[in-house]
Design a protein that fits this description.
Number of domains: 1
Number of helices: 1
Largest sheet: 18 strands, antiparallel, barrel
Strand content: over 45%
Radius of gyration: 22 Å
Helix content: under 10%
CATH class: Mainly Beta
CATH architecture: Beta Barrel
Distance between the termini: 34 Å
C-alpha cells in the first residue's frame, strides 16, 4: 500500500517550468502627452506547473503571470493565464477553470479569435491574452471536433495608464467602464465551434454570443476637467470562418466574421498566403514570403486601423541550433499610402536556458484626425532577455 501511495504522490507532484525576464523599451520620440514617460524597464515572470494522473487522462495546468513596470502602474499587473483541469476520454474532453483558447490562421490580425480578452499593456499587436473563466466540452467525432464554451465572467481589456506609452490622447480611463448588459462583467457568454481537416484543408466555423472583447469608447469629462475615453462593452453575436489550405510550399489563409451589435452589423476579413522557400541559397535556412489583405466594411468607423490595407512580410528561419528567427512586415493603407506601419521581430536562444527577443515598431499616421494619431510618436525598439527554468 505504501508503494502505491508513493507512486501516486510522485505523479501528482508534477513539474515546474517557465521563465523570468527583463524588458527594455526605447522610444524614438518624445511623447504626445507630457505626463507620459520615456524609455522604460520592466521585469516579468511566468512560471508553469503541470501534473497529470489517471494514466494521463486527467491533468492540471497552472500558469500565473506578473510584470513590474518602471513607470506605468497599469502595466504593472498580475494575471492567471491558465488554471485548468482537463478530463479526457476517447470521444470527448472537458476543460474547467481559467483557460486560453486560440482560433485563427492569419498573421496580421486574428478576427475570429474572441474567447480571451486582449492584454493590451503587454503588447500593441494584440497577441497577448488574459485568462478566461470557462467550461469547455469538446466532442471528437468523425465529422470533426465540436466545441461548446460556457464563459462565466468577463475580463476587461487592459490599457496603458497616465504615464504609460502606446496610448491614445486623450487617454482611456478603464476604471469606469460601461456595459450594455445590466449584469456588467458578470454576464455569462457562450460560444460554439466546429473544426475539421479535409485533406489539405483545415476549416473552422464558430459562433459567439456575449460581451464584446473589443470596446467602443465614449468621450467623457472627469470631475477634475480632464477629457478621457471610457470603454463601453456591447453585447454582440459573431459568426466566424477560418480556413487554411496547405499546398506544397504554399499556405493559403482566410479569416472572416459577421458581427451584430456595437450599433450595427458589419463584415470583416483577412486573407492571403505564405509561401516558403526551403533551403534558400543552398543553406538550411527557410524563407517565407507573406501577403495578406485586411478589410472592414465599416471603413473609417472601424475600431481598428485596418479597413482596406495590405500586409507584406517575410519570415527567415535559420533552422540552427539556436532557433534563430526573423519576421519583417509592412502594413499599408490602400486608401492613403502615408498611413502605414512597420514591424520587426527577431528571436534567438542563448545557450540552453536563455532567449533574446528583439522587436521594433514604427507607425506612420499623418492625418491628425486619425483616432490613433497619438501613437505616431510611440515608435519603439524593445529588447527582452528571458531565462527559462
Amino acid at each position: 500500500m505504501l508503494s502505491i501511495l508513493t507512486a501516486h504522490n510522485a505523479v501528482m507532484a508534477g513539474e515546474w517550468s517557465g521563465y523570468l525576464g527583463a524588458e527594455a523599451r526605447i522610444f524614438l520620440d518624445d511623447p504626445t502627452d507630457p505626463r507620459q514617460q520615456g524609455n522604460t524597464l520592466s521585469f516579468v515572470a511566468q512560471p508553469e506547473y503541470y501534473t497529470e494522473w489517471d494514466d494521463g487522462n486527467q491533468s492540471l495546468l497552472f500558469i500565473p503571470f506578473a510584470r513590474i513596470d518602471q513607470h506605468d502602474t497599469e502595466r504593472s499587473h498580475a494575471d492567471i493565464r491558465e488554471l485548468v483541469w482537463l478530463k479526457a476520454a476517447d470521444t470527448w474532453e472537458v476543460h474547467i477553470g481559467i483557460g486560453k483558447v486560440y482560433w485563427g490562421v492569419t498573421e496580421s490580425q486574428h478576427l475570429v479569435d474572441i474567447i480571451n480578452q486582449t492584454d493590451l499593456v503587454e503588447s500593441p499587436d494584440g497577441e497577448e491574452k488574459l485568462g478566461q473563466p470557462m467550461i469547455n466540452l469538446s466532442l471528437i467525432r468523425d465529422l470533426g471536433i465540436f466545441d461548446l464554451f460556457v464563459l462565466p465572467g468577463f475580463r476587461e481589456r487592459t490599457f496603458p495608464g497616465i504615464k504609460g506609452r502606446l496610448r491614445s490622447v486623450p487617454r482611456i480611463d478603464a476604471d469606469d467602464a460601461l456595459y450594455e448588459s445590466s449584469r456588467k462583467n458578470r454576464h455569462v457568454d457562450w460560444a460554439l465551434r466546429w473544426s475539421h481537416t479535409l485533406g489539405d484543408w483545415d476549416i473552422g466555423l464558430s459562433w459567439f454570443d456575449g460581451t464584446s472583447r473589443e470596446p467602443r469608447f465614449i468621450p467623457t469629462i472627469k470631475p477634475d476637467g480632464e477629457s478621457v475615453l471610457v470603454p463601453f462593452y456591447d453585447q454582440i453575436q459573431q459568426a466566424g470562418l477560418d480556413i487554411q489550405a496547405t499546398k506544397e510550399g504554399w499556405l493559403w489563409k482566410l479569416e472572416a466574421i459577421n458581427r451584430r451589435g456595437m450599433g450595427e452589423t458589419y463584415n470583416a476579413l483577412t486573407g492571403g498566403f505564405e509561401y516558403t522557400v526551403v533551403g534558400i541559397a543552398s543553406t538550411q535556412a527557410d524563407l517565407g514570403l507573406i501577403s495578406e489583405y485586411l478589410y472592414d466594411d465599416r471603413d473609417e468607423q472601424a475600431l481598428s486601423l485596418f479597413q482596406n490595407d495590405l500586409m507584406l512580410g517575410t519570415r527567415l528561419t535559420l533552422n540552427d541550433e539556436q532557433s534563430t528567427e526573423f519576421l519583417l512586415g509592412l502594413i499599408t493603407d490602400l486608401d492613403d499610402s502615408s498611413e502605414r506601419s512597420w514591424f520587426i521581430e527577431a528571436s534567438r536562444r542563448l545557450g540552453d536556458r536563455w532567449k533574446l527577443n528583439i522587436e521594433a515598431r514604427v507607425l506612420s499616421l499623418q492625418d491628425p484626425l486619425n483616432p490613433f494619431h497619438a501613437l505616431a510618436k510611440d515608435d519603439f525598439i524593445q529588447l527582452e532577455l528571458l531565462r527559462y527554468f
